[in-house]
Amino acid sequence: MTRVLVVCAEPIGPQVAGPAIRAIELARVLADSHEVTVAAPAPSVTGDPRLTLVEAGFADYDALSAAVAAADVVVAQSLPPRLLSKLPSLGTRLVADLYNPTVFEVLEAGRDKATPARRRQQRTVTLAAIAQLAAASHVICASEQQRDLWLGMMAAEGLVDIEDYARDPTLRSVIDVVPFGLPSAPPVALDPPPIRAMFPSIATEDRIVLWGGGVWNWLDPETAIDAIGLIEETRSGGPRTHLVMMGLGRPASEELDAMRAGQRMLGHLTRSGLEGDVVHVNRGWVDYDERGGWLLEADLGVSTHHDHLESRLAFRTRMLDYIWASLPIVATTGDTLSALIEREGLGLTVPAGDAPALATAITALLDDPSRLAAARLSLERLAPKMTWQQSASALAEICSGELQTGSPDRAALLRTTLAQYPPLLAETHATHGLRGAGSRAWRNLRRALTPGS
C-alpha cells in the first residue's frame, strides 16, 4: 500500500476555503486505497479516522520535512523551497496540485500593495510554480485551460522531457486534469433554515439569491449588489428578491486576508443603502458541513467576476456547490464553469460588469418556474458525474504507480529554488526589518548545511 502525504498550507477544520477543501477531499478519496497522512498547520482536524494527521505548516519545517521523508508520494499545492529541493534525493514522488492559477491570481491578490512588493510577490510566485513543475513526477490541475497554462510554462522553461514525450506524445502521463469535485451524498437541509434565521427580515415568500463564498480581489460583488438594487427599483408588488452574501471573512492565510475587496464591497453596499433591506452579509464563515443548508434555502446562486486573466483560468469552487445543491446559476462569462452553464443549461450567463444584464437574467429565471425547473433538472443530471470519487480516480492511479510519470528536472529545480531566496529575503526585510531577514537567511543556510535536513 502506497504511503501518501497530502500537504495543505491552511488549517483543516470545520471552517475551510478552497485549498483546504481540495486537500481534505482528495485525501479522503485516496484513503480508499492508500495509507494517507495529511499535513496541515495547527489547529487542524480531519474528521476521518482513516487519515493520520500531522499538524505542521510551512513554518514547522522539521515536522513537515519528516512527514515528507516518510512518504512514497507527496500531493501538494505548494512546498517550502528548501523542502521541495530535497525530494529527488529522498526518492519521494511529488504530485504537484496546481489547481490554482497562481501566476495570474497573484496579479489580482496583490493589487492593493505597493509596486515593489507586488513585483517581489509576482517573482516569487512564478519561480515557485516553475520549481513545482521541475520537481514533480506528475502535475494535476483543474481544467484543460489550466493544463494549457502549465504546459506553456513547462515548454518555456525547457521542462518538456524528450523521453517523456516519446513515451506519451499527449503528455497526459505527466500533466492531467483532476477537477474540483462534489460530495457523493446530497446536501442536508437545516432546521431552522439558516438564512432566514440569521436575517429574519427575509419573508417566507421572498426569493434568495446566494453569493456562495467569500469576497476576493478578482471577484465583482458590486455588480451583484447593483443588480439586486435594480430589481428592487422596478418591482411592482409580489415577493422581494434578496442577495445573501454567505461569507466575508476567511479562515485562511495572511495573504488572502490582506485583500481589500471585502472593505470595498462593504463601502459600496453602504453607499447603496441596500444592506439589511435586500442585501444581507454574513461577516463570518459558514462551517463546511453546514453549507448545504444555506444552498438548499436559496432560489438561485450567483457568481460575478471582473474581466481579466485570472478569470480565464479560474475554477470557481462556489459554483461546484451550486451544482451539488441543484441550485440554478447566474454567472459572469469568461471562465471554465460559465461555459459549462451555457453548454449544460444550468442557468444563464452575462457579460462582466453589466448590472442591468445580471438583473434581467436573475428575474428571467426567478419569474419563470418552467425555466427554473429545467435548469434544476440539468443540474441533477450533471452532479453525479462530478463527484470527488470520479474526479480523483486518476490521482489514485498515479499514487499507486499504475501510471508512468515524468522525470524531475534537478537542474531547473535547483536554479528556481535558489532564485526564490532573494525576493523572499527582500520581502522579509520590508515587512520584518533587518533582524527578521537575517534570521531567515541563517535558518535557510543552517538547513542547507545540515545533512539530511
Automatic annotation (TrEMBL):
GO molecular function, one term: glycosyltransferase activity
One of the Pfam families matching this protein, by short name: Glyco_trans_1_4
Gene3D superfamilies: Glycogen Phosphorylase B
Protein name from the UniProt record: Unannotated protein
Species of origin: freshwater metagenome
Lineage of origin: unclassified sequences, metagenomes, ecological metagenomes
